[in-house]
Design a protein that fits this description.
The chain is an alpha+beta fold and about 130 residues long. The protein has helices at about 15-20, 25-30, 105-125, and strands at about 1-5, 10, 35-40, 45-50, 55-65, 70-75, 80-90, 95-100. It comes from Flavobacterium rhizosphaerae. This is SRPBCC family protein.
Length: about 130
């Protein structure tokens, strides 16, 4: 299952956005209002839960300075990645788009597609809060 957020323009340099996303504490600023739990568990990992959903632990898996950050599920039960692509537009602004990729059976994919689409759209929409 592959999902993508709309591209959002942020009035910050690409390097600033990359650095902010590299600090997992900042993901709390991006979370939707229905976040039931957010806990930093290490320098490159955090756990979050949305109301009515199970806890998910994410860990930074890959970094390409100022252009790409890949988070992956720390558990093999739900294998997926969340990739943030950052494209500099000018020296003071950048475009960010999030991509969700996961391997789920058809029933699970059908159940989670809507909530995950809304979730990544919310994360992208909150990028200006960084």
């Amino acid at each position: 299952m592959n999902l993508e957020s709309p591209k959002v323009t942020v009035d910050k340099p690409a390097q600033y956005i990359f650095d902010a996303l590299s600090d997992v504490k900042n993901f709390q600023k991006l979370m939707p209002e229905n976040t039931a739990k957010f806990e930093v568990t290490g320098e490159d990992s955090f756990i979050f839960a949305l109301k009515g959903m199970p806890e998910i632990k994410l860990k930074i898996k890959e970094k390409q300075p100022a252009s790409k950050l890949v988070l992956g599920a720390a558990s093999d039960k739900l294998p997926f990645t969340l990739t943030g692509n950052i494209d500099a537009i000018t020296e003071t602004s950048a475009q960010v788009q999030l991509f969700f990729e996961g391997e789920f059976n058809a029933m699970m994919a059908m159940m989670i597609k809507g909530p995950i689409t809304k979730f990544i759209e919310t994360l992208a929409g909150n990028m200006h809060k960084l």
